[in-house]
Specification:
about 625 residues; mainly alpha; globular; TPR-like_helical_dom_sf; Tetratricopeptide repeat protein
């Protein structure tokens, strides 16, 4: 099968390595024409994107974007081919999870759309893609204007008679999902939920979902969600019918909106979409995501090899949920780790081909985390993890993209074995691995900062084990540098680094270093609490801001900074008070619009209460 045919079809995941090999082999030499080089790079970009869809490995997505960007740079302005290459780069960027990726994709598609006749097929398709990107932007930064722009573009795209059926069905699903999001998060208008039900029922009646592989399986769950939202908002119950069950022999697989045409196998698409909720840190959505993944896995045969990547995804995010639960709910966190380990063992059992190494790395991660964090650990966990990782790293046929995570977990396991056995050799080897991996990344980038955060954590562990002042100084210097870098890039991630630094320094009886780390932690918590006003788990941030102040006060006291101890306590209280006042202002503002009579009565009552309090204080004085 030639490369062009491979790229034009929906490639099964087992064929993706062949697709990548052919795309790399087809790259021409530097003496060939720039147009030929651009076409070959564009093909390579699409091959990497197919690999990303199947494996979820971010390195494939990054390589896809790099190749598409190089291809576009080879074609001068004004050439007709540039429009196609610009659209390819936008398509790659649209899979990114950063605001900048979606914004650049929108700009490229808008540039591609200039000069096209309004109402043409290509114009309608681009309107739909821009609409989906605006909705993705709303999911990332929770701005209502992004959602409104997305709805506008989707409506315009679906209003075009030239839009192909293969595009119409997934865009209809996307429009329905955006309407539900506006109903839930922005407007609260039941009409949005009713409209979503109407759109999906029309799609069901016309059998429009059958135009895209796997999309029909998504219809029932989306329709069910829309009907439940109608019930929640108290709209007309006549819009509700019984959700049809899958027919005998039909797959029970369910997809989430926006991923039905992504090219992933149906179950894997649903699981990856659901797992992305866990990455956001919102535990309620993580619970729902993991339950949904379990449901999809239950629909598959026990020995189906395609379960392996899904099981690995589920295990990865169970570990992430355990991390979030560790402080407040340690028993539930331990249970998550056990479930992740069971799933990783099953993935390692059923995996075949390119997925064997990935399953081995995930199993090693689960074993390491059980050893490091839970009460039911054993020395065998660590030894088994190290054996698995050494096998992956020594395998001559391993995938290149599996090496970095395998080295990362291997360093972690070596460090833990060094602590267990008192082995300086393991300590040194683990730190060398992390330092080498960090130095390979470009300075000032998030990847470099994350790698150095892991190295700083290892240095703190070594310092706690050896008690050496030099080790403590090196660990603190590294942590300081990491927190400063991450604070400018992503404050929420910098929180973890600052929290680890503060806790390690205080546990190591280093009050001055702990006081500095807590200063960073409180500063970042306040920044997140103030700026991320729409975060679903803002309550968690506010509670931590208050409790961190209570933890920081004795640290400052031990360091002899008595004034600072008082300041952090008062600052923590001020954050909670400011949030309460802000919510009160918002509530009163809403009430003024909805019920001005009640708002006036409330304000009169508050004025009398304030006057009475003032009179009482003056009498007491």
């Amino acid at each position: 099968m030639d490369l062009d045919r491979l790229l034009s079809e929906e490639v099964p995941c087992e064929r993706v390595p062949e697709l990548l090999r052919r795309a790399r082999a087809s790259l021409p030499g530097p003496d060939s024409s720039k147009l030929r080089q651009a076409v070959a790079l564009s093909n390579l970009s699409q091959a990497h994107l197919a690999a990303y869809r199947c494996t979820g490995e971010v390195s494939h997505w990054e390589d896809s974007v790099d190749a598409a960007r190089q291809a576009l740079g080879l074609v001068p302005e004004g050439r007709a081919e540039r429009r196609t290459l610009s659209g390819n780069l936008a398509g790659c960027l649209s899979y990114g999870r950063a605001v900048g990726d979606q914004e650049e994709a929108i700009e490229l598609w808008q540039e591609t759309m200039r000069g096209l006749r309004e109402g043409s097929t290509q114009h309608a398709e681009l309107l739909g893609r821009i609409g989906q990107a605006h909705v993705a932007l709303h999911e990332l930064r929770h701005r209502p204007e992004d959602l409104e722009r997305g709805l506008d573009h989707l409506e315009r795209a679906l209003g075009s008679a030239r839009l192909p059926d293969v595009e119409r069905a997934p865009l209809t699903m996307g429009l329905a999902a955006a309407l539900l999001e506006r109903c839930r998060r922005v407007s609260g208008d039941p009409a949005d939920a009713v409209r979503a039900v109407d759109l999906l029922e029309e799609l069901e009646r016309t059998d429009g979902a059958s135009t895209v592989v796997g999309l029909a399986d998504a219809l029932a769950v989306n329709l069910e969600a829309a009907r439940q939202e109608v019930v929640r908002t108290g709209a007309d119950p006549a819009a509700l019918d019984t959700v049809p069950e899958p027919a005998a022999g039909e797959s029970g697989t369910r997809l989430l909106p926006g991923l039905a045409s992504s090219g992933l196998p149906a179950q894997l698409a649903a699981t990856r979409s659901a797992m992305s909720m866990a990455l956001s840190g919102r535990l309620s959505e993580a619970d729902r995501a993991i339950a949904l993944a379990d449901r999809h896995l239950g629909d598959m045969a026990p020995d189906d090899p395609s379960r392996a990547p899904m099981l690995c995804d589920a295990a990865h995010h169970l570990l992430a949920r355990a991390h979030h639960r560790r402080r407040a709910q340690p028993q539930l966190a331990d249970q998550d780790v056990r479930e992740a380990l069971d799933g990783a063992r099953e993935a390692h059992r059923v995996a075949v081909g390119v997925h064997v190494a990935g399953a081995a790395v995930m199993l090693a991660q689960c074993l390491t985390q059980r050893y490091a964090e839970t009460a039911d650990r054993s020395a065998r966990d660590l030894d088994e993890a190290i054996g698995l990782l050494e096998g992956v790293l020594r395998s001559p046929g391993r995938r290149p993209d599996i090496v970095p995570p395998a080295r990362h977990r291997y360093a972690e396991a070596l460090l833990l074995r060094g602590i267990r056995d008192g082995s300086a050799e393991d300590f040194t080897r683990a730190l060398e691995l992390r330092a080498t991996d960090a130095e390979r990344l470009r300075k000032g980038t998030p990847k470099r900062a994350f790698a150095e955060a892991g190295l700083a954590q290892m240095l703190h562990i070594r310092a706690a084990s050896t008690g050496s002042s030099d080790d403590w100084a090196e660990a603190s210097n590294r942590s300081r540098q990491v927190v400063r870098t991450l604070a400018a890039i992503t404050p929420t991630t910098a929180l973890d680094a600052a929290r680890t630094w503060a806790d390690r320094a205080w546990e190591g009886h280093r009050p001055r270093e702990a006081a500095e780390a807590y200063g960073w932690l409180l500063q970042l918590l306040h920044r997140v609490a103030i700026t991320q006003t729409t975060r679903a788990d803002k309550e968690t941030v506010l509670v931590e801001a208050a409790t961190a102040g209570q933890r920081a006060a004795p640290v400052h006291t031990a360091a002899g900074r008595f004034q600072d101890a008082a300041v952090v306590l008062e600052t923590a209280r001020a954050v909670i008070l400011a949030e309460s006042l802000d919510r009160e202002r918002f509530a009163v503002g809403t009430l003024r619009t909805a019920r001005p009579d009640l708002a006036a009565r409330y304000e009169r009552a508050m004025l009398r209460l304030e006057q009475a309090t003032q009179a009482y204080d003056e009498a007491g004085a």
